[in-house]
Amino acid sequence: MSNDGINKVLLAGQITAEPRWHDEGNERMLCFTLTTKEIIFSQKEDIEHLENHRIKIPEKSHALKRFTFKKDDIVFVQGKLHTRSFIDAENIKRYKTEVIANQVDRHAPEIPTAAQMRTVDFG
Question: PROSITE patterns this protein is in (predicted)?
Answer without folding.
Answer: SSB (PS50935)
